[in-house]
Structures are given as C-alpha cells and as structure tokens.
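If it is no trouble, might I ask you for a protein's amino acid sequence along with its backbone structure tokens?
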Amino acid sequence: MATPEKIQAAIDSGLKKADENGDGTVSKEEFIFVISSIDDSKSDLWITNLYRAFDDERNDKAKWEPIQNFLIQWKDHYKEIEEEKYPYEILKVFYQAMDKDRDGNVKLQELIDFHKGFNPNTNVYEEAKKMRKMDENMNGTIQFYEYCKYYGVEVKKSTDAHDGKGKSQCCLLI
C-alpha cells in the first residue's frame, strides 16, 4: 500500500533511480518499477495505463519532470486521493491516461480499459452508467471538463487535458 513516505522516497531518488538504462527518460518498465515500489497493490495493467499520460510521443520515453510532479501531487493530496476526492492535477493525469488517441474525448471503451487496471472485474454496465452521468452534453464521450465536474472540480469547458499536445480541438480556445 502506498504511503506518503514511500512516495517521498521515490521523489527523492528521482530520475537516477527511475532511469535504469541511463537514457535520460523513463520507460514503461522503469515506470512500473517506480510505481510498484510505492504501491505493490497496483496492477501492471493499471500502471501501464497510467504511463500513457506521461509518454507524450508514444515512444516509451517519458520525461521525469511530469512523473515527479504527479508523485508530488499524490503525496501532497494523499488523504483526499484515498477518499477518491481527486485534485485537478491528478484528474488531469488520469484523463490523459484514459484518452488513448489523445483526441480530447474519452469513449466508453477507453473508460472501461482504464478502470480494468484498477479492477479486472470491471462491470461494463456500471461503467456505461458512470459515463452517462459524466457526459453532460450527451455526445457519447467525456470531455475533460465533464470528467472534472463529475469529481467536483470545476474547470472551463475549453480546458485541454493534453495542454495542446494532443489532437483535441478545445486547445485552440485556451
């Protein structure tokens, strides 16, 4: 189980410990090692899904700084996260991880695939119900602002979870 102390230890060891092959980036396997050292209850599937949020180029070479920022947010908001009261920064990472094609819209299958990492017995019907609750504009996908709103965090409709690095059209409004 994760603890703030384990998270801090991962932050303190930094890129040198995370980057086993010395290429200056963090591969998926290296990321799995880092997160598993913090919380061995997380499945490799969940960690792999989460890694997508950091691997901008989809080339298995994530930069350390965004991972470090995620770890800092996890540590700083540990109690809230345990209660599923996610802060904006964590929601952003989760959304980036779910949005496989980076188009700014999470589809039902993307939602299911992400949650199967938490729980392999994820119920498709329950995920569809959750998606209907999130899908405020009823277009069959979840935009970032809808995802945040579902968890009680208000953001502008134009907010792009991918900071302009994805294929989302909303980043033009920022």
Notes: Residues 168-174 have pLDDT under 50 and may be disordered. The first helix runs from residue 4 to 18. The domain at 86-167 is CATH 1.10.238.10 (Recoverin; domain 1).
